[in-house]
TrEMBL record:
It comes from the Bacteria. This is DUF934 domain-containing protein. InterPro entries: UCP030820 (IPR008318).
Amino acid sequence: MQIIKDKQIIDDSWNYIIDDADLEPGDISVSLARWKKDKQQLLEREGKLGVRMGPADSVEDFAADLKDLQLIELDFPAFADGRIFSHAWLLRGRYNYQGEIRATGHYLPDQVFYLSRVGVNAFSPEKTEDLPVTLANLDDFSVKYQTSIN
């Protein structure tokens, strides 16, 4: 599968592991709940680690662990929930997280410019055919009136 990262279409090397599935080798992400439950086991395995968080999750719940994570996935269950924007801003602005922040789930292509303004640098559209439109939307505006993360 392909994603957009840093304004380029690339192959995705990450696998999301659902909570009750066995851990796989390679680069994986898990839910915040699984991270909290299996943190030591996850840290002992080979490969990069990521956490997927939803709108109801709290960045503060794992802020001390950010140094161990190379990916934070922000999962949009519905495009009407804006808390994900705040999560991205907190990760970059308050906690100075330097790893990949990826939008997944039900976000609109029209939202990617604004997501990039609060620190999201990777996008995983639901359909591969949406990659060119999503990439183009990152350059929707040439002038920015407000300061932001980027």
